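Researcher: Good morning. I'm working through a list of sequences from a screen, and I'd like to move beyond sequence-only analysis. For each chain I'm collecting a predicted structure so we can compare shapes side by side. This is the next one on the list. No need for commentary yet; just the structure.
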Amino acid sequence: MTAQAFAPQWPAALGARPAGERLERVRRSPHFVDGAFRNPVPTSRATDGALRLMLRQVREAAGLRRPAGEIPLVWRTASDYADGPESGLRATWLGHATVLVEIDGRRVLFDPVWSTRCSPSAAFGPARLHALPLRFTELPYLDAVVISHDHYDHLDMATVKALARRDTQFAVPLGLGAHLARWGVPEERITELDWHETTEIAGLEFTATPARHYCNRGARVLGTVLWASWVVAGAQHRVFHSGDTGYFPGFVDIGDAYGPFDLTMIQTGAYGDAWPEVHLNPEEAVQAHLDLTGAVMLPIHWGTFDLAPHPWHAPVERALAEAARRGARVVVPKPGEFVEPELKRDPEDWWRALAPAKEACAARRDVDTPPAEPEVEPELVAP
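Model: Good morning. Structure tokens for this chain:
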């Protein structure tokens, strides 16, 4: 198939520019300055000497960026969600930043991505290292979908189009609703929030909170779409989802204003010396969790896509070492495994059996064929 076959999909995948009242609301935001949204603290997307630093890390991580074997999954079906969690709060990490949270009798899906690649095209871009442990057709009823920002590994056009066919409400940062509307989500099902704004959906409170990152789905919408972390609060429980973020003192403020949290879902992977201000490293992820007054930390944004020059398993190894030093509780489930923060569980270091070694990787390159791509939902693959 030629590249031309995918060309018609690219403009749609880039999303849409906020216009009309949506753009006017963007312009009224106190965080929108000189034609673009600004971070809560001065931020550079790349540090001085970024290319040199990245090339060095690429060399150091050569042969270590993929698991040494097949990632174990706990397969789920809709029937697994028929009965709510005993404790009232349960999370299913589905891979990367996609987490299905059952909280006080409701279901919230964060940053859903069901496509094989996080890319504007099905032909190229980072591919999954494991399949989704919950097929899209097995998704239970959702009370809300929450999206942190518009990068392709967090906002997936094909998944949104499929969710648009369901009766699902979306909570997103300012400006991001333009993407959803272009992809078929009715305006009445889109709620856009600025930082520290709150809305109620199905009896839960959703608050967009600051993050230190950026949006960029294409030059056509640069600067007019906000990014956010999220607080979701029910009658009995509170959770925090970081989206993508660098470390900043605002985590303390979020914890003071909206915590404490029963569960924090914190970006732990895809860090790099070349972009230290827009992605947490594992030690910073633990610090953010403590700043937020979190009870249990679930590391996310690791293990599913190869997006940064660090060893595949390094995010959780470093996070666990820092958590042990700081007295924090961190859980590392297999994709699809249930996590109930109030229930004690014996830790299982399942990823260590898959930790890549350079010698083993070199041997596999000599004798193995490339691994097959995981199965995905046919309706979520661009034609």
